[in-house]
Amino acid sequence: MKTGWCISTIAVAATAVGAAVGCGDKSESTIAGPTSCPNGYEACPSGCVDTSADPTNCGRCGMACAADQTCVSGVCTGGGTAGSGPTGGTGPSGGTVETGGIGPTGGTEPTGGVVGDPFDSGAGIDGGGGTTGGTSGTGGTAGGTSTTGSCERTVGSCTSPEVRVTDLNIGVQVTGYGTEYDTQPLPMVISAMPSGGSRVAWLGTDGNAYVAQLDCGDQMVGSPISIPAHDIQDIYADDEGGVLLLTRDATGSGSDRCGPGPLCGGTSAPCYDMYLVRFNKSGTEEWATKVTNLSDSMEGYDNGARFVWAHYQHHGRIAFDGSNYAAYFCIGITVQNGSCVDIHEGDRMQVVSSSGAPVNHRQALEVGCSHSWTTRIVWDPRVSQFMMLCATDNPDPGTGFPCRIARPAPYRTIAPVQCNGRFWGGDLVLAKNSGYWTAYTQEGSISLVHFTESGPDQTIDNAGSADHAKLISYGENHMLLAWESGSSMAAKVLDSASGATIGSQWTINVQDHNYHAFKAYPDGSVAYPAAGSNNTSIRIARVMPCQ
Fold it and tell me: Are 245 and 263 in contact (CB under 8 A)?
């Protein structure tokens, strides 16, 4: 069982390190656009738009449909070549996948594929009869059409959604689950592409992260690309590439790259930097922006350092506002203590533009929560702000409880809880009408909390039995709550306005990982990456859309 915030003998303070550092010393956001919009419209940089019908902002700000597509209920539809490809055929991805090079090489496999762009050459998926770069599917035509297309997955009943599990032979070893302790590497992450497919990333065993594109049927397109990384935390994908949140070695002196210190107690451990790294669909790293503060003049054991330390967990998440990427993650915090230094644990939020430039964003946090062991962030276009939550052992002043789910800097309690080694901060999603939902666990029981800017206003206890919970937006009107159940996962659908359960509990037949996350898709489905049958395979569990 994870205790969360400290696994070393280094002294840590129970008070909020840097808790006074908040929004007040930050400039206003650089994002242009309205601050509020009428009901039914979203505030995008271009103005107030109806994302259910606007082909330039379909489903979310910045999601542009192809020239021959229309936006229907927030999903790009139409276009493509008729036949048995993704836009016109049968089966989960519009055809079969037995011929055409779906393996990791993506080269001149049995029929139809050619070596080229690892994500966009056609790669021979369903390529029977297709020509170079042709549309996927028997009888496909030439022209470089992406194999993802606009996914129109089967819509089922919310009382018993359909779950499809796809096994992928990735051809590269992936880091194992281990004991899923909070300082161990995260094996894999996934993200929706606006066009409906996915990018899945996994941590290899050779000092690299690997990224592969998946089509509408969750089959691999072309070859994975590799990006140097010590470990990975999250991915945000688009049709041209994506952004990874990852760590790389710090460049400080000494065997642990931390500088001389000395520490006031305990043992040293390696120092790392956290980065947001942009890659394109050809596999080129376009930029890497450091979101910790180490430099030639600031080593890990220097007073004021904000860095990733191997002794402390550093999981994080990415949110995107249509122009900028926000990373909210856990860090080590170096504080001078006489002639030596203590390393405290907290979290940090930094914002980077789509070109890789650091943004002096009004919501960025030098340090947010003290002893934070889960960090959650979403972009809320309704109010044009990021919403963040942490799980912290900073006591709740109202109840005296020693831990809480809270908004950071300044602290605002969402749920006061006990600190006993079985407290876990779950995910954060937008509620249907207003406010937000979060899930957390305490003593093996899942609770849901709805809150607004004014604070919490609804709590649903005993929503499930587990030590870790996962919550994700599921279409326009629902949420999906999932948790570990033996060797599989249990799940149920919730109304995203009231939190009420729809139907009964059901099973997702993949292995849970405490730190893996579901991701939502434009068509209303959600997907989850999981361990495969061996160390060179992974599984994608997709819960199909429901109504």
Answer: no
